[in-house]
Description:
The chain is mainly beta and 1481 residues long. The protein is 7% helix and 32% strand. The model is unreliable at 1-8, 40-46, 175-182, 680-810, 841-847 and 976-984 (pLDDT under 50).
Amino acid sequence: TASPTTFQNDPYFGESQSTLVSRGADGRLLYRGYSNQVGDTNSNGYVQGGATNMVPDFSTAGYMECDVPIPFVPAAVVLYPNNDGADDAARIQAAIDSVGTLSFDAEGFRGAVLLKAGTYYVDAAGGLLVPYSGVVIRGEGSGVTGGTTIIYRYRDSENSFRDNTYLFTLGTNWGGGRVYLEEDRDETMIDQDFVPVGATKIKVADASGFNVGDEIAIHCLFNDAWLAHMSNMSQWGWTSEEYDDLYWRRIITAKNGDELTFDAPIVQPIESQYGGGTVKNFRFPGKVDHVGIENMRLVSAPDETEVNGDGIKVDEDHGQYAIKLVRVEDAWVRQVSGEKFWRGLVSVVSHSSYVTIEDCSMTNPISHVSGGRRYAFNVDDSEYILMQRCFSSEGRHDFVTGSRTNGPTVFVDSLSLDLYDDNGPHHRYSTGLLFDSMKATRAGAPSWDALGHFNVQNRKGSGSGHGWSGAQVMFWNLEGKIICDAPNGAMNWAVGCIGDIVDGEGSRSPEEPPGIYQSHGKHISDIRSLFYSQLYDRKGTNSEAYHAAFLPQQKNGFIWDELQAWGGDGLFLDPLVTWFDEDALPLTFTDVGGGLLSSALKIGGIIRDLNLLGLEEGYTATWSLQSGPSTASFSPTSTLVTSVQFGGGGTHVLELLVESSPLSDISFSYSAVLQIEMDMLPTSAPTSSPTSVPSASPTYMPSSRPTSFPSSIPTASPTQAPSRSPSLTDHPTITPTASPSSFPTALPTAAPTASPTARPSGHPTESPTSFPTSAPTASPSSLPTSSPTKSPSSYPTASSTNAPSSTPTVDPYYSQSESTLVSTGLDGRLLYEGYENQVGATNPSGYVQGGASNTVPDFSTAGYMEGDVHIPFVPAKVILNPNNDGSDDTARIQAAINSMADLTPDGDGFRGAVLLKAGTYYVDNAGGITVEHSGVVIRGEGSGVTGGTTIIYRYRDTENNFRDSTYLFTLGTNWGGGRVYLEEDGDETMIDQQFVPVGATKLKVDDASGFNVGDEIAIQCLFNDAWLAHMSNMSQWSWTPESFDDELFWRRIITAKNGNELTLDASIVQPIESQYGGGMVKNFRFTGKRTKIGIENMRLMSAPDETILNGAGLKVDEDHAKFGIKLTRVEDGWVRQVAGEKFWGGLVEVIGHSSYVTVEDCSMTNPISHVASGRRYAFSIDDSEFVLVQRCFSSQGRHDFVTGSRTMGPTVFVDNFSQDLVDDNGPHLWYSTGILFDSVKALKAKLEDGVWVQMGDGHFNVQNRKGNPATGKGHGWSGAQVMFWNLEGQIICDAPNGAMNWAIGCVGDIVDGEGSRSPEEPPGIYQSHGKHVEDIRSLFYAQLHDRKGTSSDSYHAAFLPQQKNGFIWDELQAWGGDGLFLDALITWYDEDALPLSFSEIGDGLLVSSALKVGGIIRDLNLLGSEEGYRIAWSQQSGPSTVTFSSSSTLVTSIQFGGYGTYLLKLEVASLSAALEIVLER
């Protein structure tokens, strides 16, 4: 049950979703801001910090931040049991002490003490002490029989309530005080009125005394006002003095002036009105690190004859805890079972940190069931603690924290059986705790009321005055009864929990307000575990460190049944698990003669049986292929971690066999299987390098890139993090994370600050966030250091006015440079907030379609091969030279192109290029030049006004002075209409959803049996008359349902299938509603398409009669060429570095369902025609999708960047410039969807006396263009789901009913009233109008970065260094289409590989791990040089040497000899470019 206030707090009651944390379209987690609790004691309603707080990332909890697996430390001393029942304490302690004298190895370990299987007894009062760093205690099993058992027999009859009896104490006893802070080191005040939860940056008064890599303590200096605000905690004995030393340890990862960035988020809001806070250097004297205890059973020895009236054994004159960890760092307890201790198995206390407790149990505690007893797994005054896969029975507080425990601390995938009291924070304000995927059952309860309790609440005067037990405590996917209240000025959360919400008398403080409840009564199914999902986001999937964190069963779901069945007897679940690097998929296949061979896939096994790892004779590991349609070659077969190559696609089952050595006295044999599926996909838009993609036959590769991670814990592994090298003098200390928590507001050209020896925070290889924190620096000789965003001499100042009267109500961030729809999260990745579609006056019922479930779609799959590979350079097979006599060159150019049809496509699907050498060519043929064969590229030798390749189209037809079919180049095949692009005999099914929101990547259908992963499908909206009526009665303009439900469809590829649910490779860009006809899914076939074709590096010109003028002096001849280039029915094509002049239509027209096309670095100038309808469409997209137009320039056009009828998205125009625009840019007619206009600028002009005169900002419009009332025909709604992002120009952004359009970060007048064709239509969503969204300079490139990451040249080739600095409108205007746009050579490096790890190689010398660097040649003439070119990398400056693995290849790797700033130089022929890399301590 739940109180009314609780239901109001849960917008997703029982709906398995949360606004706080959700999955984005790319599968990564999205975090939405929230406001802290206000409460009755804050009558003015002040909400602290607004909705700027976010759920923190808990994934840094655990040993070494979970960046490396817990290691196996070889035994240095081995003990055997006496078998005589005598006290073993002295000899075990002597063994520990002897290992404590050994030297450290490179990982910071001295060695292990191995207690062989059998029973040992400890009678000493103080138990056993491990006060040395680098020492591990290990047994040979934790089972009830057969392993290592230690029985603690100490008793003191004078004290029947033992408070200091521990079998093992790891660490050094704490003497109190604040010696853990540097009294003589720097300290500074926090210079912010409010620091929100989730923040990883703080501004301080003076950061001069702090450096990257420093460990700091962040203090809240709580005052009496805070105590009063917190429901008057002083009444329970709390004082501000005992809380003003509450601190959180963090490591500085970046520093910018007085702003410090650190490695883990803030878990307590800091407010100046409540005392503010300080930052101080941190020192941890006397800590003990790199210690552990594992693989044994620990038992106390009570008097079991002492029984109370309820039959409970109550003796307490025996062991309190089996293990205490005190002042330890980087430690663990694993595979340890405890029995009969009166308090519990493990207590982690006294500022311990980075500790993992896993696969442990505590059963049969013997004590009274009352206060202070039965705390099975306890954390007190410590942080970065991870407890996972643990079991407890008959406890009071099984998983619990004590006073002032600082987060992040995590309890995950654990079970409380027969719980007497509750789990959760217990007293005195613990912060930053996660209780994740846990279950509790209640002791002695009937089956209908069997769930135990998880509570966070104001405990008031309980105990010695517990007060508020905790804040920023997350209950995630729990099963148990819940109290989740929240203190004023903070918050607690209960998300996806199942069980009664306790209210009224069941709560200690029923008057306190509830925290945030979401999805109560139903688990969040697509984020089964918050911790493991956050770990996946941070780490990625390509090393065993990630896979070692959890087991296969945890990936499938909850493990409560398995924990209960186990009960602590022996090893929990599998002794051997296998994994593979899923992020390496899809593999590429190469024809090796007589068969295929895949690229290498990394696979691995993890041995969890510590006995097998400890065999002196060792073990053998053997990989083999058990089944599959082709071969599997291992390299090698005899190591746990290896690589495998396959001979084809399909499902392959591998087996790993691990056996004890034949020389061993003990026989082990474990096997584990590994299934790898590689489906065959069609050639359309493959997701990996095209090195194996033929043009006319299917390529063999695994399923295309998934758009989301699995609904449960992913099965892949993270990037391997280097182990922190310990200091042998002071022992290892935590080192900083290199990855900043957020990304810069622009795309920087400088390298990031990094700490090379730090634990990296890790990024999935699929998609790091937003733009990288660094980018290569181009050659200083040719590249300006920054790009101004405005040139006053040439750009009139934009006039930004307020929106129409209805607009400000939909712009909560007017002129605030931020947006709620798309924002940057704490990890730097994009966050998407849901929105509601337009309702409009025609929907008086106020029905909001789908609620706020729509999100802005991901546009980043637009372009050649979805932007997944670099546009290739195709070698010339035919070379033509100009005639230089002015004659018609049509026949010989066409013959050269036709000759390519006889060539066999290479492994990438290309036949070759026709190279037109520099000079002038003439084409007089009516049909121009056609390229009808896949795999053919047309290339010139430059697009400049002089010195390159120019083709002049001279055809004229005086009988028709408004040419509609004259193209200089036609790439593809002319489209004959009809529906031949759909499989008439293929499967078809209706969509089985009332509403499919924009941004969705999943569809439920009636019957998915006819569809498979890898299928290309068409998603159709079957629009009906009700839709036309809802859309402001479009039937009045001759729109019919048939003209849309037959033609309007969106191509997608199935990437996953779950029953009748299909997952797609790109977002839905049009809401689909059953009331408006619903939709269907059908197999797609693209008849007659042409793939892998392009045209590049030339100048194309029409030849009008320039003597024909109108009265204004405008040249108006139209008896000449319409477009320079038409692409029709083309897939994976491009136009790059092409300049156009004088065509009356424009340079490029993409039509006929073309897709995956990139147009870049192109221009269209000086069009010659009337300035009237149907003319001057410089870059036009019609009835096509997945098209990218970037870095293009146009002048004197009417519609420079425009879409025609029913253009399907995603389609993108980004970083373009319209000079002297006569009309507008935007979608033009008949409902284009999913279009992004991003960072485009337009200047308006008119012709006066033959001269173009600028008139301020040009126009970007999406609106109801209506039609001609006399004829009843018209354009109607030009588009929906159209995004105007960071534009400069006058704006009309209206939105049709049932859909939406957006204008975000745009600068320029909002046109209303007479300036609009439909002033009665409601506006779309305007946000940040009048000010650009600075931290997301380009939405497209930010989305591309989220999806692709930064580890290959395909990403860096997508844009130029100047684009990373800001807008490039000045550069485009200065260029004007004359030659290559900007740099001929650029450099880059793999920023995500930072921080580098350093190893000592003797005599104090260091060498770093390898860093990948690269160069990209953009000068196509150089790439085509027959003589080739010289490549040379060199070091220009730096504090130590740089070693190149190869200094003569464009892409290479380097290693450094130390920290500092390095300047490298890449020389290619006569070109050079610099690359600066900064490695800070």
